[in-house]
Fold this protein.
Amino acid sequence: MLDPITYIKEQLAQREISIELHQFKKIVTHAGASRYEVPAYNELLFLSNAAQLPIGTRIVSDTNIIEIGPEHALSEALEEFSGLVAITIPSHLASYPIIEFIQILI
């Protein structure tokens, strides 16, 4: 398995995008809210924990759309998002997830 940061750096180098800063961004979800918005302008967010998210979680941005399904349970892929990132989680969950991104400022 390739280290996620190394993978991201290699992918961005192929696009000739230099990384100014990288850090981790967590979105803590809770009962009573099923939609979250994350502004990701001038940055890239790489979803790093798709396998831990509830089936039916939907993430939509200016550049990508993903709906978590059973195929993500074993996936190590890093989905990339930028622009306005809207996250919708299923309602009435037994436990609410923490959504983790690797944030790249460009």
About this structure: The longest strand covers residues 35-47. Helices lie at 4-14.
